Amino acid sequence: xxxxxxxxxxxxxxxxxxxxxxxxxxxxxxxxxxxxxxxxxxxxxxxxxxxxxxxxxxxxxxxxxxxxxxxxxxxxxxxxxxxxxxxxxxxxxxxxxxxxxxxxxxxxxxxxxxxxxxxxxxxxxxxxxxxxxxxxxxxxxxxxxxxxxxxxxxxxxxxxxxxxxxxxxxxxxxxxxxxxxxxxxxxxxxxxxxxxxxxxxxxxxxxxxxxxxxxxxxxxxxxxxxxxxxxxxxxxxxxxxxxxxxxxxxxxxxxxxxxxxxxxxxxxxxxxxxxxxxxxxxxxxxxxxxxxxxxxxxxxxxxxxxxxxxxxxxxxx
Length: 317
Ligand SMILES: Nc1ncnc2c1ncn2[C@@H]1O[C@H](COP(=O)(O)OP(=O)(O)OP(=O)(O)O)[C@@H](O)[C@H]1O
Fold this sequence. Notes:
The protein contains ten helices and ten strands. It is α/β, with parallel strands linked by helices. The protein has two domains: about 5-95 and about 175-280, 3-Layer(aba) Sandwich (Rossmann fold); about 115-175, no CATH class. Strand 7 (about 175-180), helix 6 (about 190-205) and strand 8 (about 210-215) form a beta-alpha-beta unit. The radius of gyration is 26 Å and the shape is globular. The chain starts with 5 loop residues before the first helix and ends in a 6-residue tail after the last helix. Adenosine-5'-triphosphate binds near residues 67 and 68.
């Protein structure tokens, strides 16, 4: 599938500007869940600035707190301590200026593709005329290549089509910041690859600030200007920021032969491997320190009892 916007955006090369202002900033953010013995400290001392117009990727391990991190930015969760600001004002809840796409599509099953997208558009642009809203919905259905399936309900769509609907629904709200929480990880490799390129094309055309959470270093390097690892939890912290200085538009096949790409991929992968090993070692040490008292029992010699059983006369069966 190709997008109407693709040829123009492909021809556009992004020229690295001077460092733009942060649109979202996180300062010393900590977040955990539960209390007492069941308390889990998920994120610890998170400091990050998301720059206006950039594509930032956060790569992390399973269970490290990636979704919690996205929910904090979306305003769906509140930090226990620290601050999250958007353009200098604290984020206190969800808002249409921050659109989020989850891994599991989260579409309303009784609405069609068109209905799902229209619901968001009608809510956010309630003051527009009916015709304006309708045209807007159709524009985004077309952008993600679903015009032929606009009348279908989620159960009649493939995983890729559902995720396109989800993406169109969020993009149609024209958020200033797009938060993508592992949007492609439930898809097969081929669909994932196509959608990676489409997300990139849309971002290049729309110039939104975009933060993508992923567990795939190659995916992060294809799309992002900067990559930040989320170290393993509990108390997951952010690692160093890696700048991805690769020309755009990026071609996946060509990148595999690019020396700069290979070097950066190795650096990031080695970093991730080493922090995971450190986390495992720390876990082992913590576990190894625990003392287990074994009961003071003497093993019984069962050989005599066994002999007695086998030597005893038959019972008349
Ligand atoms: N609402 C909640 N209540 C209690 N614990 C939670 C809650 N949300 C997340 N957690 C815990 O926080 C930790 C991090 O979860 P989170 O979903 O953020 O990780 P993740 O990196 O997105 O995981 P995955 O890669 O498996 O999607 C997990 O131990 C999870 O059980």
